[in-house]
Amino acid sequence: MIEPTLYDVIETLHSLPGESLPAGSQGTLVHQHEANVFEVEFVNEAGETTALCTLARHEFMVVWQAATEQPVSTAEQVAQVVALLPQQAGSEVLDFARFLSQRQRLEHSESAMAQ
């Protein structure tokens, strides 16, 4: 799992109702309190701070890494979320991924046969 560092951009995994921030809100890690607790700044399109929240690691995923100045791939984002889930839920995600893989192969082979 990706280890968050200062200035990484994160995305919340659930809404933060006290701050009127829905799930999927993006913010920047601006301070690390302890091993898995971070201060996150959320800004609007004008660059004004709209919220400053303390979040535990299980409440967000990293979507952009400051160290590499690169976005995190979709596969790595999924891996972060799955790593935070209980074992049974992780198994369900794996089953769904297998289903999607099989469906994609079938669609590809049907498309090739139609040509």
Brief overview, please?
With 115 residues, this protein is of the alpha+beta class.
Using DSSP, what is the number of strands?
A: 6
CATH top level of the largest domain is Mainly Beta
- Give the N-terminus to C-terminus distance in angstroms: 42 Å
Low-confidence runs:
none
SS summary, helix count: 2
Largest sheet: 6 strands, antiparallel
Q: What sort of overall outline do the alpha carbons produce when their principal axes are compared?
A: elongated
> Given the helix and strand composition, which structural class is it?
alpha+beta
Q: In percent, how helical is the residue content?
A: 25-40%
| CATH homology group of the largest domain | SH3 Domains
**CATH architecture field of the largest domain:** Roll
Radius of gyration: 18 Å
Strand order of the largest sheet: 4-3-2-1-5-6
